[in-house]
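Quick one: structure tokens for this chain, please?
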Amino acid sequence: MTTQVAGQKMFLAGKWVHRDRTIEVRDPQDNRMIDTVPAASREDMLACIEHAKEGAKIAAAMPVYERMAVIHKAADYIEANKEKYALTIAKEGSKTIREAAKETERCIQTLRISAEEARRIQGETIPFDQMEGNNNRVGYYQRFPIGIIGAITPFNDPLNLVAHKVGPAIASGNAIIVKPATVTPLSALLLAEAFAHGGLPTKVLSVITGHGSEIGDVLVTHPAIRMISFTGGVEAGEEIVRKAGLKKVSMELGSNSPVIVLEDADLHDAVESTVSGAYWAAGQNCLSVQRIYVQQSIMSDFERSFVKRTKQYIVGDKLSELTDIGPLITEKEAIRVESLVNEAVDKGAELLTGGKRNQAFYSPTVLKNIPDDSTIAKEEIFGPVVLLYAVADVDEAIDKSNEVSYGLQAGIFTKNIDKAQKAIARMDVGGIMINDSSDYRIDAMPFGGVKKSGLGREGIKFAIQEMTEPKVVCYKLSN
């Protein structure tokens, strides 16, 4: 029997609109349909972009205090309805209700920070008389919004990662069109609802639901879009860069995050941090701990404690406060993770725990003795799987960490400042956490990676830099 649902509307240029064609939104836990959203057409996206041209003018003309007020009111609305937001995140995605509640709180903070950063979009004076013959010139530069931003967002943080694009865009006076992940569009629509209640002028924000194959290229290639902000997989990111043309691109892509644990580390803290960092959101997290390099002298103790703690994690109903790990976003993804683990085991890897799939659920898994030629050793797993490696010292750990083609974040556990500093200097990553796992982030810090992990930086202040352009002003004074 098919569940009857009312169906959501999408937010086109500030108006809520239905479409006859729809997309089913299903709970990955039991594949139950929980809602539908419009399947936007190419013509919808083209119309949206035309409205956004006007929206960009409206946004740029908004004084800073109005931008701040709107963003704060949107945050207030989410705070007043945070149970609804958390429940939506949990039902449409992979997160447990506890994880969803934390994402909702982070979204509120992301918006609050965006509002505050709106007042700090500043320029500098320029001493033109540094060049001989320019004694009669004075001036400065200031930053202006770039216009229309196209945002393509992923399923794994369906509210806060949308806020990380929308908040800075509005704070800096831009219009923005969001194309959320097809499997998790409801949270993005709830963010639009918050901004509508916050009094955001129409045409400044759109959340257009639909299939990427139909509306994605229109958004990416249209000359009126001055920036594409994308969070997702490497292959999709590379395709967007090829198609985008002469516009800004911000890419937050994949990772294969390493953590180093040295013999002087606090073992209990290292285990707790890395287990949490590995299995948050069922491992579907770009910062997720994937590779752990442990100094040989403590390997047996670390392995025993890590496996014991992993086995204590409860896999089950996302809406239960007792659950630690929910399902992957689809059964297809769980099958993909299962095949990666099976390939590694077939090639000689040792399975210490886990390795079991039940529909979209995959048990938290630990492997060691992983062959270098196995796919799982080189690529992003994006699932609840951890690889343990024994190393002789910090130098070997750093060298091994750098061998993959990703470089988002890393962690190192040590009480030795010299060894920590060596890792800071030599590890090819966008961020390194000392005595913490790779899975640590606050929403105000610069966030992004090197190599195949991306281009540019998010984090509100740094996103605003990407979403604005400097304009030089020079006065030639009469004698």
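The domain at 257-447 is CATH 3.40.309.10 (Aldehyde Dehydrogenase; Chain A, domain 2).
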